[in-house]
């Protein structure tokens, strides 16, 4: 089973006032217990890039990861 682990970093917790800055991904094959890929997408840099293909390509890659995954897990870190 292909598992996609997401770590999403933002500028805050408000959906309307804050933005996603970084998306970290790990694609893991749970049957073989092997990591297939690890990648960090810098959303903030892609959104300000003069080359619009940077953002388009990143969105396309993340969409493919989401489509191909059998299971999606989001990491949530909580301060204590």
Tell me what you see in this structure.
This protein is α+β, with helices and mostly antiparallel strands and 80 residues long. The chain has 2 helices and 4 strands. The N and C termini lie far apart (33 Å).
Instruction: Summarize the helix and strand pattern as letters.
Output: EEEHHE
* Mean pLDDT level: 92
Number of strands: 4
| Beta-strand content estimate | 35-45%
* CA gyration radius, whole angstroms: 14 Å
Largest sheet: 4 strands, mixed
Helical content stands at 25-40%
For the termini, the CA-CA separation is 33 Å
The helix/strand class is: alpha+beta
Low-confidence stretches: none
Shape: globular
Strands in their spatial order, largest beta sheet: 3-2-1-4
| DSSP helical segment count | 2
Layout of secondary structure:
Blueprint: E1 2-10, E2 20-29, E3 34-42, H1 43-48, H2 53-68, E4 71-74
Parallel strand pairs: 1-4
Antiparallel strand pairs: 1-2, 2-3
Quickly describe the structure:
The protein contains 2 helices and 4 strands; from the N terminus they run E-E-E-H-H-E.
List keywords for this structure.
single chain; 80 residues; alpha+beta; 4-stranded mixed β-sheet; 2 helices; 28% helix; globular
């Amino acid at each position: 089973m292909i598992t996609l682990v997401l770590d999403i970093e933002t500028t805050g917790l408000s959906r309307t006032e804050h933005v996603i800055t970084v998306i970290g991904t790990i694609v893991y094959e749970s049957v073989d217990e092997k990591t297939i890929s690890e990648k960090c997408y810098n959303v903030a840099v892609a959104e300000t890039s003069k080359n619009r293909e940077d953002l388009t390509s990143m969105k396309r890659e993340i969409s493919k990861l989401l489509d191909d995954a059998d299971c999606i897990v989001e990491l949530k870190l909580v301060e204590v």
